[in-house]
């Protein structure tokens, strides 16, 4: 038996929230990869792939954001500061992802280079949100 000791009360990440949190990172990373492929090949389908991946990341990320917002105001939740940081990072990820979706709604080459930069920043924010989410809300004991 492995016991992970942590000071104070640690609330486990709900399994559904963990599933919702798992999707934005690969979707936004895929959008970044397709933007890089579009920049090097000029095939318009890569821009279409990026738009769809961003839309998927926004959809699932919106549900994760809603869950984090509800958790932020629940009574008895330990570590409100960490939850607030997690919520703000998710909110920034979703907001920049939405702006990125608007940029990708333009004509294909008109998305460059703003779309590429926004995809990179959104992917980094998704990585930070996943890092904070999975490292901070784990169970105190693992058997």
From TrEMBL:
Sequence ranges assigned to domain DUF2231 in this UniProt record: 14-133
Pfam families: DUF2231
Keywords noted in UniProt: Membrane, Transmembrane, Transmembrane helix
Keyword Transmembrane helix carried by entry: yes
Origin superkingdom: Bacteria
TM helices/strands, residue ranges: 49-71, 83-103, 115-137
InterPro entries: DUF2231_TM, UCP029509
UniProt entry tagged with the keyword NAD: no
The protein's name in its UniProt record: DUF2231 domain-containing protein
């Amino acid at each position: 038996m492995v016991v992970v000791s942590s000071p104070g009360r640690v609330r486990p990440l709900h399994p559904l929230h963990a599933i919702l949190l798992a999707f934005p990172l690969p979707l936004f990373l895929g959008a970044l990869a397709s933007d890089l492929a579009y920049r090097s090949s000029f095939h318009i389908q890569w821009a279409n792939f990026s738009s769809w991946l961003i839309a998927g990341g926004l959809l699932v990320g919106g549900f994760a954001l809603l869950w984090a917002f509800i958790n932020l105001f629940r009574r008895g939740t330990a570590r409100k500061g960490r939850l607030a940081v997690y919520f703000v990072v998710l909110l920034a990820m979703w907001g920049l992802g939405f702006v990125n979706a608007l940029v990708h709604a333009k004509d294909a080459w008109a998305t460059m280079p703003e779309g590429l930069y926004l995809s990179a920043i959104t992917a980094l924010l998704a990585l930070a949100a996943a890092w904070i989410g999975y490292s901070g809300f784990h169970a105190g004991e693992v058997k």
